Description:
9 helices, mainly alpha
Amino acid sequence: MNLFKSYCCSFYGSILWKFNSVGFDKICKSWNTAIRTLLHLPYNTHTCYLGPLIDQLHIRRQLYIRDFRFLWHASRLSNCIVKTCINNASYTANTCIGYKLSFYRNLYHLDMRSNLKLSIARLSVDTLDQNQHVIISNLMTLLNVRSGHNVIDNLNHDQVDILINYLSTT
C-alpha cells in the first residue's frame, strides 16, 4: 500500500483538471479499482469504504482539498496579474476556475474568503453513518485476519472471505 501511495498517487498537476471531465472520473475509477485489487476486495465494494480502509480520504476528496488549497493560496498572492486572473475567473462558471469556485461554494459552502483550515476540515468531513463505521472496522479486522496479522477463532480462510465479500458490498 505504501508503494501504491508513493508511486501511483502523486497526481502532479491535478489542480488543472476539471472535476466534471471524463478524465477526472477515469482517474477516480482507476484509483477505486487499484484499492480493490490491492486489498483483494470484490469489484462491487462500495467506494465509500475504500479510503477509510487504507486510512485516507477517498481520492476525490483528496484532489478537492489539493485544488481548493491551491486556489485559496493563489487568491492571496501579491502578484497583481495572478490575483486579477483569479478574481475575474471567479465571476463566471464558464471558466475552469469559476466552475471550481462555484462547485466549492454550492456543495461545501466555501469561498476564497473562508479560513483555510476550516475549509479543509469541511472538505475532509466524514460523511459515513455509524453502521458504515462499524462495517469498516469489521472489514479492517477481517482483512488483517486474511493477511495473517490477526486470528479469529473458529473462522477458516473461506469463511473470512465470505464475510469480507458480504460486508464490503452491503
